[in-house]
Automatic annotation (TrEMBL):
Belongs to the TRAPP small subunits family. BET5 subfamily. InterPro entries: Longin-like_dom_sf, TRAPPC. The keyword Endoplasmic reticulum applies. GO terms for biological process: endoplasmic reticulum to Golgi vesicle-mediated transport. Pfam families: Sybindin (PF04099). This is Trafficking protein particle complex subunit. Its main location: endoplasmic reticulum. It is found in: Endoplasmic reticulum; Golgi apparatus, cis-Golgi network. The lineage of its organism: Eukaryota, Metazoa, Ecdysozoa, Nematoda, Chromadorea. It comes from Diploscapter pachys. GO terms for cellular component: endoplasmic reticulum; Golgi apparatus; TRAPP complex.
Length: 141
């Protein structure tokens, strides 16, 4: 099992943080910004699709989807931030890991008055703590 990559979007769909660890296959898109737009669009479409197909009232939540080669776990925060983590399809404990990542964001970025939370995350503390929590996770193997 392993963890491939991580996307973090602001409420406007701008990718404010991206990180790769063991990404084995690349998208073939040379412009990384285009890949970010496609990922954000796919996440938005999945959520819209789930709501339209739902037989129950209220907001429907897409937490992950899986293919034979990867699993994309997704979190939409109450403030409109979106995080997506690509892993091996059988990686365990990823929803909890995503919550940990969000806590790291809150502690290192959101609570820092010197950082603009709508722009790209430039915090070395955020980056190092994110790396630490990913590399020490059981799914990283």
């Amino acid at each position: 099992m392993t963890i491939y990559n991580f996307y973090f979007f602001n409420r406007n769909g701008k990718c404010i943080y991206y990180k790769e660890w063991k990404r084995e296959k690349h998208s073939g898109i040379s412009d990384r910004t285009e890949e970010f737009k496609l990922m954000f669009g796919m996440l938005s479409s999945l959520c819209s699709f789930a709501e339209r197909l739902s037989t129950k009232e209220g907001q429907q939540v897409v937490r992950h989807f899986r293919t034979s080669s990867y699993k994309l776990t997704y979190i939409d925060t109450p403030t409109g931030l979106r995080m997506a983590l690509n892993t091996d399809p059988y990686a365990a404990g990823i929803p909890e890991l995503m919550k940990q990542i969000y806590r790291i964001y809150v502690d290192t970025v959101l609570r820092n008055p010197l950082l603009d939370t709508s722009e790209k995350i430039e915090s070395e503390l955020f980056a190092s703590r994110l790396d630490q929590v990913i590399i020490h996770h059981s799914a990283y193997a």
